[in-house]
Amino acid sequence: MLRQSPLAAADRRENDAEHSWHLALMVMTLAEYADEPIDVGHTMKLVVVHDLVEIYAGDTPLYDTAAGESQPEREEAAADRLFGILPGSSGRELRALWDEFEARRTPEARFAKAMDRLQPLLLNWMAKGGTWRTPGVTADDVRARKAVIGEASAPLWDAAKHLIDEGERRGWARSR
Amino acid sequence: MLRQSPLAAADRRENDAEHSWHLALMVMTLAEYADEPIDVGHTMKLVVVHDLVEIYAGDTPLYDTAAGESQPEREEAAADRLFGILPGSSGRELRALWDEFEARRTPEARFAKAMDRLQPLLLNWMAKGGTWRTPGVTADDVRARKAVIGEASAPLWDAAKHLIDEGERRGWARSR
């Protein structure tokens, strides 16, 4: 499924496979910045499966409020359909990982979600705005949607805020 | 880096990020077929980093003998350059993972390599030939290059051989 974020060095948007691989590599290299200890291998499983439901549910743009409202229902139905294809134990394992990622009740799920929000921010930074330039979106909207990074890592949230602040200063994200 | 295999449902070739994500998902779902017990999280780390050296060394087609001869030297130099960019412990960890993958001396590395050879075989099957149709390549050449799957999983190698046999019968790989 084609995502919204532009790629850093290409004239096309990234897809879910590229995005998920990028998150897996970020988990490996950034795990040391997690506020709580995390199981790196388990966190990698969470990010590898987290967007599979988009096969049926499609990509939901982060700054599309209307699409966001129907997102849980659409993705739940997609999960039932998709993970039901696999034989019993495999299907149950992938479904449990997706549920864990969505619920964000474990340190691994919180860190996985933080990577999922940090990676597009880095791509938008490299693209000098990217989806920050979505009509109607302000730098404060970006901060609000990215604050979840702070639930997993204080230093990475500090770094993310710095990029958003600097992006606003450069006019890549609107002040209001 | 753009790889040789065609994608199953697209008119373009896959790239390393897509390939590596696909391997990570295959490790999760096919680990039960490993002949020796493997640490799934560690095996996922191996596949996530295994093609990073192609950033500098480029993709080496599996059936290009001349390029294959220079591959170890080119990839070794790329590894020195690439993993040297990262701070000490991160760089050393990724380098150790890449060395482990290449050496195939652990059950995890053997299974990671098996996935690396099985995934393009599945894409070629879906594409009714794909790189099996490379000039000069026969079904026996394909069997020889894929036999490494059998070092990690007897049932997956049986399945792979079945696809190659059937591909040869259908004329997707030449008999001689």
Automatic annotation (TrEMBL), chains A, B:
Key words, A-Z: Hydrolase, Metal-binding
InterPro entries reported in the protein's UniProt record: HD_domain, YfbR/HDDC2
Alphabetical list of SUPFAM superfamilies matching this protein: HD-domain/PDEase-like
Keyword Glycoprotein: no
Domain of life the protein comes from: Bacteria
Pfam families: HD_3 (PF13023)
Residue span(s) of domain HD: 2-153
Cellular component GO terms, alphabetical: cytoplasm
Entry keyword Transmembrane: no
GO MF annotation list: 5'-deoxynucleotidase activity; metal ion binding
PANTHER family cross-referenced by the UniProt entry: 5'-DEOXYNUCLEOTIDASE HDDC2
Protein name: Putative hydrolases of HD superfamily
